[in-house]
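Weekly structure sync, notes
Attendees: PL (lead), two postdocs, one rotation student
Agenda item 3: pending single-chain targets
PL asked that the sequence for the first pending target be pasted directly into the notes so everyone works from the same version. It is reproduced below exactly as submitted, 308 residues in total.
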Amino acid sequence: MSVPAIAVASLSPRPPRGAPIVVLGPSLGTSAAALWGRCAALLGERLDVLAWELPGHGEGAPARAPFSLSELAEGVIIAVERSLAERGHARAAFAYAGVSVGGAVGLQLLLNHPERVTAATLLGTGARIGTTAGWHDRAAEVRLRGTASIVDASAGRWFAPGFLDREPDAAAALLRALTDADRDSYAWTCEALADFDVRAWLAAIAAPVTAVAAARGTPRRWPARSSAARNPQPGPLADGVDHDASRADVGVGGAVGVGRAKLRQGRSLGIDARLGGGQCRPHPLGLDPQAGQELGRLGGGDDGLPSQ
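Predicted structure, written out during the meeting:
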């Protein structure tokens, strides 16, 4: 195992002096620009927006060896610190948002570097995602046939009904990022997710956490396996979280649930689902409703699907 080299891009070409810093994390198979570019455009005049790339994705160099999620998070903090130091903000704290594996890295950062992360928004992610066998199966498929072999299946999971027709350019950019991803780096990320499980340590997180997940149907509490489940035991965020966009018409009358809580005093993250209309509550950062709608509409992911 080794700490991978991580690329960080600025998505705010001219951030205001002294602007709050937000770091964005990707979903497996995506690039920073394809996943976060439109959201960053809504935030870039008020925030200093940085985004990191998975190894072998987007502008990221391919990994040279296997890595764990903890090592991936270390690579991210090293790269972010280097970028901040170049801007004269060494050791600065930042807010964080991540989708799927990017959200899992966010949890690892909250645990390993709590002094650096002021707040986190975690989308379609979990403290344990998917199954060990599922991740190893996908890693083997991609090593054998490349990432192009999973494009159709990923499109079915990533995009809500009608999205491909409404947003063909956005969809094409995301699928192109998947096709172009390095197969070994993708497979090693799958294997890192196969071993990832921080459920037992969630109660140690003290920073504000906003969890976002999609669901179809009438307003209800999310299932016990959802990141938004109310559970008195440690470790509810989230076992086998469902973030299959194809099952949630996000942004077109479907449902996005957003909750916020602090994990403290050994208590679990308890969030009541508030579903309907793809609405997003403002994040502690001051994420405005338009940016929240964009995040909910464009956010997709390829990890941790019960159906995989």
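Discussion points:
- Residues 216-243, 245-308 have pLDDT under 50 and may be disordered.
- Residues 69-86 form the longest helix (18 residues).
Action: rotation student to compare against the earlier draft before next sync.
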